[in-house]
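The records we work with from here on pair a chain with its fold. A complete example follows; check for yourself that the lines match position by position.
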Amino acid sequence: MKKILTAIGNPILNVSLKKENEIEVMSEDIQYQDGIFEFLEKESNINFLVLSELIPGNLDIKKLIEKIKLINSDIKIILFLVNENKELENYLYAKGVDFIFHNNQIEVKDVIEIIKTNQKDETLELKKEINELKRLLEEKNELQKQNKLEEKNELKVKNKNENINLINSQQIYKQKKENLINKNFFRKKKIKEKTEEIICINGTSGIGKSIFTINLAKAINKNKILIIDFDILNNSLHTILGVKRYSEKVMNRKENNLGKIKVEELIIKINSKIDLVSGVNFLFESKYKIDNSIIKNILDTLAQKYDAIIIDTSSETYLDYTKEIMKLCKFNIFISGANLLEIAKTKKLLNIYVNNWNIPRKNFSILFNKYDFNSIDFSILKNIFLEFNIIGKLSANSNYNLVINKNKSGKLNKRLQKEYLIIYKNLIKNKF
C-alpha cells in the first residue's frame, strides 16, 4: 500500500485518492508549506507527495523541494507548476522531483494511475533495459563458444605471423626509444609550455568526486599538479587534505581588506608535487554570477605553471560556471555509481549536459565508483552508456570514511595506485 500526502490547495484529489484500495492518504490536503515539514518530520515512511507550486509559504519552489528532500530523501514528488519553464524544471528534476506537470495538464485519474503503477519510474525502465542486455550478452557468449575452434586455428596462424614480425618490432621500438630520449633532452631546454591536461571531475552528488580528485592527483606521474576546488557551494577538498580552507595570504588580505585577490594568492602547498586552490569565491563578486572570461583567464594563467590541473566541480545544474569549466577542459570525467538509482541520476545529468548545455557526448569519459560484487555487471554498464567513453571502475573502499574523518589522505597503496593509473591511461588514450 502506497502512503500519500497532498499539498495542492484542492481537496478533490485528496478525496479521490481516499477511494482507492491500493492508496492510503495520510492527511487532509495540506494548505501551507510548514504543514508539509511538520507532517514529514513525524511520518518518515511517506511514499508520494503531490505538491503545487502555489502552496503558501516563505520558500520559493527550489528551496521548498530542497528542504523536503532533506527531511525525506526517498519520497517521490509529483509537482504542479503554473507555467512551463525548462530551466526550472531541469533544476527540479536534478533535485529529485520525479514528475512535473503544469496546471490543467493532467486529470485526477491520471495522477492516481501514476501513483498506483509508477509508470514513468526510471528505475523500472532501467531494470527492463538491463534484463534485455543480459539476454543479449548470453546470446553473444553462446556464439563465442560455437566459434571457439575456428578462433584457435586463426590464433595459430596469427602467432606464426607475429613471430616473424617480432624482430622488426623490436628494432622499431629501439629506434622510438632513442627518438624519445632525444625529444626529452631538447624539451628540458624549452620554456615550459601551457599544459593541455586540464581534467574536470563531475558526477552525481555524494558519489565520491572529491576523494577521487585527490587520489588521481597522487597517482599520476607528473612533477607539478594543481587541484582546484570549484565546488563553491560544498567545497570539501581542504577538509580531506587536512589544511585550512584559505591560504595565509588570503587570510591576511581578508583581515586588512587590501583590494582584489589574485588566483596565485589562493594556492595552498600540500606537498612537493601537489598544490591546492581553495576559496575561489574570493575571485568573483557572487558565487551565482561568475564571469566566464575570468574562468578562462584563471585556467590560462595556472596552465603555464603546472603539468596537470584537476578541477572538482558541483553537481548542481543551475550554476552556469560549471558548464563553462566543462567546455574549457580537454578531459571530463563523469563519476557514476553502479546501481539502478545512481544510473538513473547519471542519465538525467548527462541529458542536461548534452542536450541543454550542448556539450558533445565524446567530451565525457565515464567512471563507475564504489564497485563491488553487488554492482551491475560491468559489461552491462558499458552497453547502457554505449555512446560514451568508459574508462573503468574503482572498487568500493572501506577507508573512505577514515580519509574524511581523520584527514588520512596519505600515499595510495599499490592496488589503488594501479587502478587509478589504468583509469588515467584510458582517459588520455581516448583523446590522443
